Amino acid sequence: MSRICRRQTKLPDIHFNDLTEGFTMNKLNHTYLSFFFVFIMLIIFGCAGGPRGNMPRIESPTESELKQDWKNYTVYFRRNTAFVYQLKDDRKIILDKRWVEVTTDDMMAKSKITSSTWVKKILDQNNEMYGYLVHRSADQANVAIIDGKTVQLYYHYVRTSGGP
């Protein structure tokens, strides 16, 4: 029978206070946590979707004034919720497939928004106007800048009790 020789070495006693000498862990954790929070916020807000346009709510022209002068614009309608009045020039508003172009007086007369509305200007980041958005006040809309002559409208229908 062989004997196994175990070497017993004693490790030096290291106390936690020796490792954190000169600063406290609470301050260190707080500093790291603050930097991490700022970093995450920069990622979320700094990289979220690129440049945005503006859509201020306006009092004039009103919805009825725009409907009367609809032939001066390229008009798109989203069933029971919104109209886009795009200026007739070389600028473009990109819309999703739910929008239908209004081409006749009959289409315009039959197209109605079923609840209270807001009128907003569609502007790029240089405050150049692309047109108007008339939409239900409950819904949300954003505009993204694609290039110098193109914006994209994101329209989000918010379900209210009773539906559109």
Structure commentary:
The protein is of the alpha+beta class. The radius of gyration is 30 Å and the shape is elongated. It folds into 2 domains: 31 residues; 94 residues, no CATH class. The model has no long low-confidence stretch (mean pLDDT 81). It has 4 helices and 8 strands. A hairpin with a 3-residue loop joins β1 and β2. The strands form 2 sheets. A 5-stranded antiparallel sheet has the order 4-1-2-6-5. Strands 3-8-7 form a 3-stranded mixed sheet, with no helix packed on it.
Q: How would you describe this structure in keywords?
A:
three-stranded mixed beta sheet; 23% helix; alpha+beta; 164 residues; single chain
Q: In whole angstroms, how far apart are the ends?
A: 91 Å
Number of domains: 2
Note the quaternary state here: single chain
Shape: elongated
Number of strands: 8
Mean pLDDT across all amino acids? 81
Strand content: 25-35%
Helix count?
4
Q: Which residues form runs of ≥5 with pLDDT under 50? A: none
Task: Give me the secondary-structure topology.
Elements (H helix, E strand, L loop, with lengths): L15 H4 L5 H22 L16 H6 L4 E6 L3 E6 L4 E3 L5 E3 L2 H6 L6 E7 L5 E8 L3 E8 L2 E7 L8
Parallel strand pairs: 3-8
Antiparallel strand pairs: 1-2, 1-4, 2-6, 5-6, 7-8
